[in-house]
Amino acid sequence: MLFALADCNSFYASCETAFKPFLRGRPVIVLSNNDGCVVARSREAKQLGIAMGAPFFQIREFCRANRVAVFSSNYALYGDMSQRVMQTLASTVPEIEQYSIDEAFLNLTGMRNVTTAFAESIVDRVKLWTGIPISIGIAPTRTLAKVANRQAKMDGMKTCLLLDESKRIDVLKRFPVEEVWGVGRQLSVKLERMGIQSAFDLAQQDPVQIRKRFTVIQEAMVRELNGETCLGNQQSPPTAKSIQTSRSFGKPRYEFDALSSAISTFVSRAAEKLREQGQVARAVDVYIRTSPFRPVAQYSASTVVPLGRPTSDTLLLTQAALDGLAKIFQPNYAYQKAGIILIDLSSAAVNRAQLTFFDDPEELERRAGLMKTLDRLNEKFGRSSVMTGTQLLDDSWKSVQQNSSPRYTTEWDDLLVAK
Ligand SMILES: [Mg+2]
Which residues surround ligand 1, an ion (CB under 5 A)? Predict the structure, then answer.
């Protein structure tokens, strides 16, 4: 087998500079909804030390002083650019598996002449056709292709090919085990305690012992690092850019409970859609605001809450969104609108193959089953037949279409009740 991982460099920031060539070489950052915090940084912005997730108001002056170009996030643009990049990649090889908004595996199995020049020709074509810079890593397994891609980025190169044994060993020796695809922080602590520090150390382990000590997933990591393909073909559905749900309230709401109820409802809808598309989200963006058209004290805020691991679980997403809401909520404002955006989406199938050590496979299975049941019940008995408790806290925010007649025939809530 032979795979290439094509990954866009600083994707959101690159989408912004693609149309503004004069910004090349300047630090660029992209902010979350309502310009709350940093969600993407160009290489130059990273070098300035701007942190992912930094609240913008804290670094506004710093950005001005350092001539940082600042953009509000434009998910419609990123989604469209992603599609163009994927189409361009698809024009170069027979089979691609899109993995996230800015990454895809290219299946090169059976292709001849897989050389640096070939890889660079793909990088150049994507740059020419879309304006987006990408890096390519090529190796016999997806896990090694990920390693190769990171190595290319660290070396400031367009490509990195891990095709011969000495190069593989050389790169793995310099590659921290924590950075290996699917390892993550918690497992790496455990591995380091066993004296495993580099990807090479992990590759040296006996796969059978690793399975006994951990699970088949970690065994697969070891085998993949040694060039043996274990992860099945993960055809992912076309990736949506992000899923947004928001609504203006009929009357302004002041209470935390009302906003909690609204946010919970938005998350439920969005999570349902996420599962329908076979995707998981890495973060949820929550926002609330007063009406700019009313003579009231103005307030608007948003925050991005990263999930511990990508998920489509309504309960976990709701918890994250409500944590975010608690952080930005201020009492005594007349809130007119709230919304959530599920961001950084990727394929659920590929993520499932990359469980981290502390994920209990049985628990995950059980939760996936619960979500399936939830979706089935809601499909059968109408939307919101089964919902999370927080949706019910205070649903007064729903009364937006006060003048419309009840939807007698399409909504269970509006069914006529015989007394
Ligand atoms: Mg990327």
Answer: 7-8, 11, 102
